[in-house]
Predict the 3D structure of the following.
Amino acid sequence: MTRRKKQRIKYTIIFVLLLFIEVLIALYVHDSFVRPYVGDVLVVIVLYCFIRIFMPDKFSLLPLYIFIFAAGVEVLQYFKLVQILGLENNTFLRVLMGSVFDMKDIGCYGVGSIILGAIEFVNAKHKIEK
């Protein structure tokens, strides 16, 4: 099995597990820490793993690009995109896109992206040492 295929399998497994955790958090956790903060940190990591399934090779700026994307989606919430598109009655799309702007969410996306950047850095350094 090639290294790329192994990477894809690894990222697929991580993606599915983290997505399952995200769904559990969304459905069953109604607290003031895990759902709003841990869930937002994890969503960046889930997105990263999803993209890495299709792009398994090193992509050191991917955490930054994901942060920009996530922050952009949050800014669209500030401008009430869900209401502009008339999707406020579509529960799935409203939850997926979000409907309430919060700067803390952008901070959580930043934390998730920093975690990913640190992992990228450690992995790159580990490969150099081999």
